[in-house]
Structures are given as C-alpha cells and as structure tokens.
Amino acid sequence: NNELLNSIVVNGNVSLGTQGGRLELHAPNFATPSQICDGAYWPANLCDKSGSSSKFVTWQDASGKGHVGLPIANAGVIATGWMNAAGWTIHGSVLLGSYVEVTNGNKVIIKGSLSAGNNGFTDINVGSSGVLVETPQNWNNLGQLPVCTTGTTATSVPASASVLWSRYL
After folding, report:
1. Of 56, 67, 130, 158, which is least surrounded by CB within 10 A?
2. pTM greater than 0.90 (yes/no)
3. Is residue 48 within 8 Å of 55, Cβ to Cβ?
C-alpha cells in the first residue's frame, strides 16, 4: 500500500515513480482529518486540534460563505510543466502547465479534476493506457482551487531593522 498524503506543487515537471503495487496520492482535503492531523507532524494551517478530535479548519470567503479545509489542500498536483503519473491514482485536482504523459501501459486515474495546457498551446496525446478522470458526485468544498489573479498595486514601505541585544563571544 503505497500512499502519499500531500499536495505536490512544483515549478517544472512531475514524474511520479512506478514502484509497483497500488500507488496513490491523496490531497489533504481528499483524506480524512485523522489521516492528516493525528500524526507526529501535521499542517498547522489546515488542522484544528482544539477539540477532542482533529478536524480541518474553516474559513469564510469574501461573500461570507463558510468553507472547510484550504483551497491548496484540494490539489493533488500543481506543476508549471508536464506530469507522468503512470499507474497512480490521484485523489485531488491536477493543474498542469503542459500535458499528462502516460507510459508503461499504466492508466492514470484522477479522482478530482484535470486542467492541462494552462501555460500555452499543448498537444494531448493519450496512449492505450489512458487517463481516467472521476469527478466527485458531491464537491462540497473540494472544487475550490488556488488560482492566481492580478494583484493590486500597493505603496511600498521602507524596511528597517535594529539590534535588540548583542553579546561578544
């Protein structure tokens, strides 16, 4: 049972290995709070451990609508280039700047959404192995993804630093 519980975010290409067996990548929001939050290390910005059992944090958007989990935690893979994930099942959305490569006769299964070719024109060439995309029946908060928008111009403020204390050795 080869499972990763994480989001993979890279400036470049992603090539997930083919070690054999069942290979799965779970975006944090596509796993359970206990899987993500109850280990020795956990993402403090995603996990609320204030109660008797762990849960994902809640937040409100600009319109006041409440959401569970963080948008980045819905992504299984975000890459500016291509992805080769032959034989993998990815629970979470996949955003690629280029294409999905399928090799070794192993199907790629994405249980979420797939967006490819975001950085310009790209060919989609799926061999006999194929890519299967299964979208959840009940998206709830799983459809939210982090996207970049044009920011606002702000006036820069000069930075300064000062020494609070010092000691010679």
Report:
1. 158
2. no
3. yes
Spans of all domains in the chain: 2-134
**Within 13 Å and on the Cβ side, how many CA atoms surround 169?**
0
Torsion of CA 9, 58, 140, 41, to 10 degrees: 40
Please measure the distance between the N-terminal and C-terminal CA atoms of the chain and give it in whole angstroms.
Answer: 53
pLDDT tens-digit profile, the chain (169 residues)? 578 899 999 999 999 877 666 789 999 999 999 999 998 999 999 999 998 999 999 988 888 888 888 888 999 999 999 898 888 899 999 998 888 887 767 788 999 888 887 676 666 656 567 888 888 777 666 666 665 555 555 555 565 566 666 666 5
